[in-house]
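Listing S7. Sequence submitted for prediction.
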Amino acid sequence: METRYLYLPVFLFVLLLFNPFEHATTVKGTTSSSGPVNYTYRIVNRLPHDPQAFTQGLVYQDGYFYEGTGLYGRSSLRQVNPSDGTVLRQVELAENYFGEGIALCDDRIYQLTWRERQAFVYDRATFNLLQTFTYQPEGWGLTYDGEYLIMSDGSAVLTFLDPETFAPVRKLPVQSSGAPVIHLNELEYVNGKLLANVWLTDQIAIINPVTGEVDGWLDLTGLLDPKSHTGQHVDVLNGIAYDEQKGRLFVTGKLWPYIFEIEIVAGKE
């Protein structure tokens, strides 16, 4: 891909993009001030990723990736070494469960399932199962904003959940320029904004969690070079993780051989 863009280190981008008072004047995008801003990317680093992992959820914490994978008979929760992709700890789900998004909440890891509508809660240090919850409708993506779990179900509506009871607290319809944004999938909460993969696209929506408006679109078209996976089946872009301490943003996809650290770049005028 071409990289002839003005780019910002991701930690500066996060400070600017997610500051509601400075964003409009500091980060220059390709739409009017009243609409979403368009962004592209620059690859900073390419990390190994298990090409058999059908990534449904991705989190970075304390030097490790935590990953939830899907497919019946292949779903799991994993702790992964970023430098070489080694799976350090793993729990496999029963064959009748299709694993979905995950979120870290204090010392617990929450994992959704798809049509089974069952959430599993694990101890982060041991991966021991602590608790289960049921929910409606389907489970897709999951993240934590410091107070509530936030779940997607493939629609244009996000659900805020009490992490202690899994009870719904509020619903957030998501729209961009007046149109609902459907197929919201994997989620990541980053400095006051929600980043959401949109299923079957190379787009990440940058969502205001108060209003549900899409403030920006991150276009990751061309991120995975076809030459890097010749003869290997890959699926769609899915998986967002953020290193809060170092301001690093990571993305991957289902059955992808790499996790990419990226810098976000303002698009062409």
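Caption to Listing S7: primary sequence and predicted structure tokens for the chain studied. The CA atoms of residues 11 and 70 lie 31 Å apart. Confidence is low (pLDDT under 50) at residues 1-32.
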